[in-house]
Structures are given as C-alpha cells and as structure tokens.
Design a protein that fits this description.
Length: 303
C-alpha cells in the first residue's frame, strides 16, 4: 500500500445556502497522479482551492503528510483554471518574478526558471513575450510557475479543457513527464483526459464523492460485455423487458439504440436474438462490444 500524501476527510464548503462540496473524503497517494473528475459545477475548483489554502473549508479536515489543517501552501503548487499572465513579460522574466515572490534569491530564481523552462519544453521560447504564446505554451508556462518552489503536490485545475487538440496533446505529454517528479492532482470534466495520465480517479458529483478507485481497478470492475442493438423504431419498451433475462445486468436506451450489459455473452446473445425474432423487433444492427469507462462515468454522473 502506497503512503498517503494528502488525506481529505469529510470536507464541506458552503457558500450561503449553496453547498458546493459536501462530506468529501479521499486520499492522494505519494507519487501518484490523481484525477478529480466531475461535470461542471461538481465542486472541483472549490475542492482544489481549499487544498491550496485559498479558501477556508466550512468543516472537515485536510491532512498533508500527516499534518492536520496546517498551512500547506509552501508544499503545494497550483495552476488555476483561468490563469492570468503578464503578456508583456517574457517566459523567463515571468518565472524569475514568480520565483522571487516565492522568496528565492534572484540567482536561484534564474537557475530554477531555466531548469523549468527546459522541463516544460519552453527553453527555446524563454526570451519571447508571453502575449505571443499559444494556449498550450501558456498552460505549460503555468505548470512551470506552479513548480517553482519544488512543491510536494502540484494541482492543476482543468489544465487541458480550454486547449485545442494540439495544445491538449502538448500538455498531456508534459504531465506524463511531470508525474516522474512529483505528486499530481488535476481536475477535468473529460474522462478521456483522466484515462490518459492518471493512476487514480476520484469522481465527484454535486459536491459529493461518487466513486474513487485506481484506473486499473475501475477498468477491472466496470468493463463488461455489452450487446448494442439499433432499430428503426423506438426500443424503450422492448429493451426494458430484457431485464427479465437472467444474464442481462443492465439496459440503457438512447433514442433508437439500446446498450445491454450482460454477464454471460453467449447465453444472452441467444436469448435476445430469440426474443427479437419472436416479437418481430425491427432491428437494424446487432453488435457485440465492451462497455467503456465512459459508460460508467455517464451513469455515475447522471444518476
Ligand atoms: N464563490 C462562490 N460563491 C457562491 N457559489 C460558488 C462560489 N464558487 C463556487 N460556487 C458554486 O459551487 C458549485 C461548485 O463550483 P465549482 O467548484 O466551481 O465547480 P467545478 O469546478 O466542478 O465546475 C457551483 O454550483 C458554483 O456555482
Ligand atoms: Mg472548475
């Protein structure tokens, strides 16, 4: 069992009558990359801001490396969801400035800036003005900024959500490198982003924990055989009646497509085909597949 770096215990944040984070508990393991996944408004930013010490929890405990509710800011690097840069500064000037704000000497800041620009792949652009940077370059500079004081935990709030596919790729690759150096917690509303880099996933919904597991564990538990049936007409009544077949575990219907999760593919295939013939269901496609984590995510988020 890997040691925990951060323990979050029954964290609550209310804004007036609104509860943004409710009774949230999870662990961040040392050296792991954890994705905080949830739809817009789920409470991701609020959670990260509490962890970063920028927002005071209404109640609950945050233990960092064994220390309870202390000032953890020096151990944490944070890239906000909408970072603001001084466009007239060069990348290098910006990092030196940030280093000095973090109480490094000018010399240390310059050294650190060079090292980080190398790490995030901006060494060639170090003298260029930030104003001319692409979205991906800005995010990478933001990640460098969050690393300036060698934090034990780097938190990135939706680091790829606003990027085009090229920028997204750049930042995902960058996070893979970063993973080798530090513990990462990043938020996203896109499961695919989480699947690409994280070891652990924490899914939240309406401020509450919906599911937390390792990516490997999630795959093991939630990947099932499915039968996908498309029809020329609405399948709702018929498809719902399939749940009486013993090997049918679950049926979801979207328009004229039914996705049927089954435990024994062979038995289910025969039973369903027989039923189709018997009831003269106007089927246009009958397909075998595997459920994806996307299905799990949609289910958790919608329920
Ligand atoms: N400063 C605030 N004042 C009032 N409500 C807020 C504030 N910040 C966030 N909220 C509310 O808390 C909920 C969670 O927001 P947020 O943490 O930003 O979600 P996410 O980052 O997952 O999209 C939302 O309903 C949002 O409107
Ligand atoms: Mg947010």
């Amino acid at each position: 069992m890997t040691e925990s770096l951060v323990s979050i215990d029954k964290l609550v944040k209310r804004f007036g009558a609104e509860t943004a984070v409710n009774n949230l508990s999870f662990e961040i393991k040392k050296g792991s990359c954890t994705a905080l996944l949830g739809p817009n408004g789920a409470g991701k930013t609020t959670t990260l801001r509490m962890l970063a010490g920028l927002l005071h929890p209404t109640s609950g405990k945050i233990s960092f490396d064994g220390l309870e509710n202390g000032d953890n800011r020096k151990y944490i690097g944070y890239l906000p969801q909408h970072p603001v840069f001084y466009n007239w500064m060069s990348a290098s000037e910006f990092l030196v400035y940030v280093g000095e704000l973090a109480h490094l000497s000018k010399k240390e800041s310059q050294q650190k800036a060079d090292e980080l620009l190398e790490l995030v792949g901006l060494a060639d652009a170090k003298k260029k003005k930030i104003g001319g940077f692409s979205g991906g370059m800005k995010q990478r500079l933001g990640i460098a900024q969050a690393m300036i004081h060698e934090p034990k935990l780097v938190m990135l709030d939706e680091p790829v959500s606003a990027l085009d596919p090229v920028g997204r790729r750049e930042v995902i690759e960058m996070m893979r490198e970063l993973k080798k150096k530090t513990t990462i917690l990043f938020s996203t509303h896109v499961l695919h982003d989480a699947e690409e880099v994280c070891d652990d996933i924490v899914i939240i919904r309406k401020g509450e924990l919906a599911l937390s597991d390792s990516l490997v564990g999630l795959r093991k538990k939630h990947q099932h055989d499915v039968i996908i049936i498309e029809s020329e007409s609405n399948l709702t009544d018929w498809a719902n009646s399939l749940t009486t077949i013993p090997t049918v575990q679950d049926v979801t219907i979207a328009g004229t497509t039914a996705t049927i999760i089954v435990t024994e593919l062979e038995a289910a295939r025969i039973a369903i085909l027989q039923d189709i013939v018997q009831k003269k269901v106007p089927v246009s496609t009958f397909k075998i597949g595997q459920s994806s984590l996307e299905d799990v995510f949609m289910k958790v988020v919608r329920s």
